[in-house]
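Q: What structure does this chain adopt?
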Amino acid sequence: VRGNAIKDSNGKYYRMIGTLVDITQSKKDDLFFKQINDSLSVNTGPSYFNEFSKFCCENLGVKFALVGIYNLEKNEVDTISFRADNVEVHDYKYNLENTPCDIVLKGGDCSYSENVQNYFPKDEDLKKFGIISYLGIPLMDENKLPIGIIALMDDKPMEDILYKEKLLRFLAPRTTNELIGLKINKQLKDSETFTKGILSSLSSQIAVINPNGVIISTNEVWNDFSNEDGKKTNELNSVGANYFDTFNIAIKNGDIYSKKALIGIKSVLNDELKRFDLEYPYHSNGIDKWFLLSVSGFEGDSQNAVISHKDITDRKLIESQLHKTVNELINKNNDLMQFNYIVSHNLRAPIANILGLVSVLNYQNSESETKKIIEYIGQSIFKMDDLVKDLNEMLAIRSLISSKKEIVNIENVIDSIFHSIEKQRVESNAIINVDIKNDATKILTVKSYFESILYNLLSNAIKYRSPLRQLELSVIIKKENDKFKIKISDNGIGIDLVKNGKDLFGLYKRFNVEQEGKGLGLYMVKNQIEAINGEIKIESELNKGTTFLITI
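A:
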C-alpha cells in the first residue's frame, strides 16, 4: 500500500490518495521457490523423484503424487515414484486404457478439481484409492513426444488447481531431464556396451567421457552437430579426442562459460557432485542459440560421465520476452506512482494557491492589491501549465514508437546538437572530443529520442562543469555484439552516488541548487532510453567527474 495525504489551503490534511497492489501471489511464489531450492536442488536420480513426490504431498496438500515413465508399446505407466498418503508405494504399474493419464499422454489437458470418477467410470484404480480430484502434466522430449507423466490426486476436491498446474509445469523441464538421465543410466546398467543405437534414441547431443576427459562414445545427434559446426569442431569432439581440450581452447579466448563447464565436469568425475547443469549461449555460423549442459556420473563402479547438450533456445526466448513484459509492467506501475505524486503534490500546490487567492478577492482590496493577486494567480496557472506539459512529455515517451524508427546518421545528430549548444560551449571554453567508430555511424532508432538523450547529457555536462578546471568532455560511440555503446565522460563537479544514487533518475530530483532546472532531464533520458529498449548506467565521483554508459 502506498498513499499520499493532501492538505487544504489552511495546511490541514483533508484527503488521502493512494494505490493498493495485491502481492499475495508473489509471496506464495517466493515461498514456493525457496521450498524447491531447499527440497529438490541437491538431489538427482532416484532420490530426486522420491523428494519430488514427497514435496508435492507435503507442500501442495494432496494425498497422492506420482512420476512415471510412459511405456508406449504396453500402453502403461511404470511409476518411478508413487506416494500415497505420504508413503512410498514401490514397483507400481497401471494400464492407461480408460484413465485420465491416457488423456494427458495423448496431449490433452486433464485436470478435475472434483468428481473425476464420473468422467472415467472404468478406471478401477480411481475407485481403489478413493480418488476424487486429478491433475496431470505430460513430460515431453525435444520432439514433443511424451516420455513420462506427473500426476497429483486427492480423495477430496483439489483447491487452487490452476496454481498447482502452474507449479508442475515449472518443474516439468527439470523432471524431464532427470527422467532422460534415469533412462540413460538404466540402459547403461542393462548393457555392458554403450551402443550407438542406445545413444541415438535420445534427441539431445550425448557423449560419454572417461575420467581423463577422453570421449569414448557419442550418439548421432552429437556427431551431426559437430559435422555441421565445421571440421575443427568435429575433430575436437569425436571419439578418441580429449573433450577437455575443447574447453581449454575456449578458456584461452576468454570464454567464462567454458571455465565453469570444465570445473563442473571434473567435479562430477571426481564424485564431488552427483550432477552438474549449466545454461550457456552458443554462437556459430551467424546463429545464436542457448544450450543446457548436463553432466551426470554413472551408477555403480564406473567413473565415466554422461555429457548432454540440449537446445533450449525456444525456452530462453520465452523467458526473455517474459522478463521484458515484467519490466514493462514495473515501469508502467512506476509511471502511475509518479503521476500520483504529481497530481497529489506538485499539481495540488498551485491549485491551493489559486483557491486561496480567489478567496482573498472576495474582500475589498485596493486596485494595486487586486492587480498583485491576479499576478500571483497567473503565476500559479503558468506553473500548472508547466506540470501539464511535463505530464504530456512523460505520456509521449510511453506511446508506441515502432512505426517511428528510422536510420539516423549519428554524426549529423551530434553536429546539430553542437550547433544548438555552441554558445554554452564557447562560454565554458570546453574541450570536446568525439570518437565515432567506423561501424557505428548509423543507427536504427527513434530520432527525436536519440537527439534528446544526447542533447540532455551533453548540455548537462556543460551546465555542471567544475569552476576549478577547464571542462573536458568525451563522447565515444562504438558497436559491440549488434548493440551500440555510447560513453559520455566529463571532468565536472560529479555526483555523490552514495547519497543520491537511488534518486538520480527520479522525477523532479535536483542535486545542485546553484543551477537552474526542474529535475526532469535525467528522468526523461532514462525513460527515453528504456522506450527504445536500451539501458543507462552511471559512474561518478564528487569533484572529479561523471561518465554515462548507454547501451542501445
